Amino acid sequence: QVQLVESGGGLVQAGGSLRLSCVASGQIISTYTMGWFRQAPGKEREFVSGIRWGWTGDSVDYADSVKGRFTISRDNAKNSVYLQMNNLGPEDTAVYFCAASRVGTLSARTRAYNYWGQGTQVTVSS
Questions:
Q1: Of 7, 11, 48, 79, whose CB has the highest number of CB atoms within 10 Å?
Q2: What mean pLDDT, rounded, does the chain reach?
Q3: Tens digit of pLDDT for each residue in 58-86?
Q4: What is d(CA 56, CA 14) in angstroms, rounded to the nearest whole number?
Q5: CA dihedral in degrees (90, 94, 96, 97; nearest 10)?
Q6: End-to-end Cα distance, the chain
Q7: 72-80 own/partner pairs: CB under 8 Å, 24+ apart
Q8: Is 71 buried (19+), middle (13-18) or exposed (0-12) by CB count in 10 A?
Q9: Cα–Cα distances in Å, from 113 out to 15, 18, 48, 77, 82?
């Protein structure tokens, strides 16, 4: 079992930045990938970014809507994954969730992830 706790959400003006954090605990060694998803009111949960680590190095992936604005990173020593969000707009308003997967391939599918955090609210005002 893996436990995930997100933090860093809040209210920000359009054009501003936020940095989300996800701290993992439990059976971390069983996970191969972690990702960020978001869910806006009335919409399905959607993929934002993912990261896979291994002996050959890290691989990252981003949704088209956030490429060039968001950056995912990790700190293995702190069992943490981060999402730096720049140039935010109202369309980015959502609850952001951290997720972890046992699968060794990056995926944008929610069903590929086994563990989920409770989410952190991000609100971008105009």
A1: 48
A2: 93
A3: 899 999 999 999 999 998 888 899 999 99
A4: 38
A5: -150
A6: 40
A7: 72/35, 72/36, 74/34, 78/23, 79/23, 79/24, 79/25, 79/28, 80/21, 80/22, 80/23, 80/24
A8: middle
A9: 31, 24, 13, 22, 17
Distance CA 98, CA 118 (A): 8
- Please give the DSSP secondary-structure letter assigned to residue 105: S
> If we measure between CA atoms, which residue out of 41, 25, 48, 30 comes closest to residue 117?
25
Helices H, strands E: what count in the chain?
A: 0, 11
Return the structure tokens found at 68. Answer: 């060039």
Reading the block at residue 84, the tokens are: 């730096």
Tokens of 79: 């069992």
Residue 96 corresponds to which amino acid? Y
Residue type, 15: G
User: In whole angstroms, what is the distance from residue 9 CA to residue 27 CA?
Assistant: 26
